[in-house]
Amino acid sequence: MLSADQEKQNSFQRRICEGDLVIVYERHDAMKPVTVRAGSELQNRFGVFKHSDWIGMPFGCKVLSNKGSFVYLLAPTPQLWTLVLSHRTQILYIADISFVVSFLEVVPGCVVLESGTGSGSLTTSLARAVAPFGHVYTFDFHEQRAASAREDFERNGLTRFITVSVRDTQGEGFPEEFCGKADSVFLDLPQPWLAVPSSGKMLKPDGVLCSFSPCIEQVQRSCEALTTNFTDVRTFEVLLRTYEVRDVKFGSLGGDGSGGAVRKPPCKRKNRPSSDEENNGSMERSTSTVMAKPCPETRGHTGFLTFARLRCS
Questions:
Q1: Fewest CB atoms within 10 A around its CB: which of 121, 167, 170, 172?
Q2: Which residues are in the tRNA (adenine(58)-N(1))-methyltransferase catalytic subunit TRM61 C-terminal domain (predicted)?
Q3: Residue 71 forms beta bridges with which residues?
Q4: Which class does domain 6-76 fall in?
Q5: How far apart are CA 179 and CA 202, in angstroms?
Q6: Helix (H) or strand (E) holding 293
Q7: Is 288 annotated as a binding residue?
Q8: How many CB atoms lie within 10 A of CB 309?
């Protein structure tokens, strides 16, 4: 994760210091954010881990508990932070985030306006995309939610690239000080069409807007509003399907401990098999291969992404 400290901008390329935020990785679906404090301990099912043992270790290292079990200490990248952050609102996940960053054409040096900070999932990725010279100005009407997001950005060392403000952009629009200065605008609002006129004023010529909406009725209203000053209006739905890759044994004659392994058909011959056949059968029972199958739980619909480009006058 990027840091406000110039000497610590690439935290994943340096060693862990006291006060750093690390992601404790147990397995792909069990991770936890921890702030390193000398004298503190982390206790989980693997045992007790002392923070003092972590200081000076490189990110990505494996550390042992008092029981001899281990976890990995990972740098808090935007992708990992999305998986461990506190859900104050519905969040965007990696599939939608990568699509948004790409289609909004966010590059280093860009100025991005975001309405609907929420849990800050997208904001962290936008900050990394605009660094080291750009900035993300994010707005949320809920004061406590904005304060919590501000604290998270500070923990991640992103305050240099993100400014959080409390504002009802749906009713008041964006501040006039950004008029004609934004490269991109992102809207995550219940009624995004109300913020479309203000967004058009904020964007530079040929700037891009994106609106995230969970319901197609919201998309229809937004597209109607966008036709006034925008062109190239397109809506997408991003669906992610993951696969499990694992070793599977074939020809098992034992119990059903192979996790769905294919059984060898029963032999119809009454004669006792020869020693060579027995050896071949033994080899067949130990045969395994690598197979891939879709995960039983596939993440479905999250929302619709509508993109539009400001029409040049």
A1: 172
A2: 70-309
A3: 63
A4: alpha beta
A5: 4
A6: strand 288-294
A7: no
A8: 18
Q: HSE, CB side, 13 Å, CA atoms: give it for residue 276.
A: 0
Is 140 labeled as ligand-binding?
yes
Pick one of 3.40.50.300, 3.10.105.10, 1.10.600.10, 3.40.50.150 as the CATH number of 80-239+300-310.
3.40.50.150
Ligand-binding annotation for 168, yes or no, is: yes
Burial degree of 258 (CB within 10 A; 0-12, 13-18, 19+): middle
Q: What is the pTM of this model?
A: 0.77
CA distances to 100, 122, 192, 311, 312 from 305, in Å: 8, 13, 12, 19, 22
- Per-residue pLDDT for the chain (313 aa), expressed as one digit of tens each? 544 444 444 444 578 998 889 999 998 888 999 999 988 989 888 889 999 999 999 999 999 988 888 999 999 888 888 888 888 878 888 899 999 999 999 999 999 999 999 998 999 999 999 999 999 999 999 999 999 999 989 988 899 999 999 999 999 999 999 999 999 999 999 999 999 999 999 999 999 999 999 999 999 999 999 999 999 999 999 988 888 888 887 764 444 444 444 454 555 555 555 555 545 544 445 588 888 888 776 666 789 999 999 998 7
Closest CA to 74 of 11, 154, 4, 5: 11
| 211 assigned binding-site residue | no
- Domain ranges, ordered by start, for the chain: 6-76, 80-239+300-310, 243-266+287-293
Closest CA to 199 of 212, 213, 209, 188: 209
Query: Where does the chain have alpha helices with state H?
Result: 51-54, 78-84, 94-103, 121-130, 143-155, 169-172, 196-202, 216-226, 275-285
Does the annotation list 120 as a binding residue? yes
Is 96 marked as binding a ligand?
no
